[in-house]
Design brief:
The protein is α/β, with parallel strands linked by helices and 411 residues long. The protein is 42% helix and 14% strand. The protein contains 15 helices and 13 strands. Strands 3-2-1-4-5-6-7 form a 7-stranded parallel beta sheet, with helices on both faces. Strands 10-9-8-11-12-13 form a 6-stranded parallel beta sheet, sandwiched between helices.
Length: 411
Amino acid sequence: MNEGTNHNTAAAQPKPPTIAGWQKPPVGGGKFATILQVLPALGAGGGVERGTIEIAHAVVAAGGRALVASSGGIRAHELKRAGAEHIELPLQSKNPLVMYANIGRLSEIIRTEKVDIVHARSRAPAWSACYAAKRANVPFMTTFHGTYTAGNALKRRYNSIMTRGERVIAISRFIGGHVHQNYGVPPGRIRVIHRGVNLERFDPAKVTAERVAMLANQWRLGDGLPVIMLPGRLTRWKGQTVFIDAVGRLGRRDIRCLLVGSDQGRKEYRQELENMVNERNLGDIVRIVDHCDDMPAAYMLTDVVVSASTDPEAFGRVVVEAQALGRPVVASDHGGARETVIEGETGWLYPPGDVEALTQALDKVLTLGQEIRATLASKAIRNVRDNFSLATMCAKTIDVYKELLQSKADT
């Protein structure tokens, strides 16, 4: 193993926790594959990091060996808990010399650790991983997590590495269409696998009243007042300005509204939002809250959850998590939300950026009676359990791995 490798054997790892609804797939009586996932880093991040850890867990649960190569980060310890192994390499670098050197490093890992499949989740490490997999003659696949900007031919070529997998997982039909239409990937190589929600964590029966009350007190929410929440990091395309304008147009003083998410260093944008709140005399109504560690409790104290993104969400985790807990959702009518919201039954869609339409949708949800809300909650929970569970995502991804292994065996 070359320098920079830092991992322990799978046998030394603690037994991983269970995934709700996960059924260990048959592996023909033998050991399942060794899967190497590559990504830049394991920081707080979002879908890339979370998905990597979840699938590493699933590989171990399927009887396989899960390797993850990255530059490390605060979430690396979660791999150990899942029974997986972390290999530290400078995969976050976009320096061509470092990327070229990573080809050799990854090739050595593939050879010495007897890797069966290389699975890339981000562009810079994907370039190294693709060539390393070719050198080692093992299958290479990717997960396309979002719509990358492609302002010029060079950037488009840089992005295209994510389409070169023998299989390309798209995290929504929206992303699958984007990959096909913009990069010409044949539908036969694309596998749409929606992101999955951990139903053990996002289960309304498991969120205690004490947890909800603690958050309500921490955020200074008045008793009995309806709560509207827009979760998501503070960045302009998430639509916080549209949300604040809509709240102002509601003209109600008997509500509380939450913007929950870190500014991630965007101090000027946060100040802009605070100025908007003050200019519209909404200081008693709108709260801007930093990152929340107990999102299930945050959803449960909320009467309506909003996704106001002005650019399409590749999937839209917030919309699905809220439904898993029986919360009504209002979301922009584009991207992944079109696949996850059942219009008029689990939530409502409105034209992106349309303040008046968002205002009307919020007013509608806030006036729903208890019986209608209970029916909506039941349908929302069923929608997620039937279509967007973590167990389903894991099972479908394992199926793609098995498909590649079979294809390799047939050649």
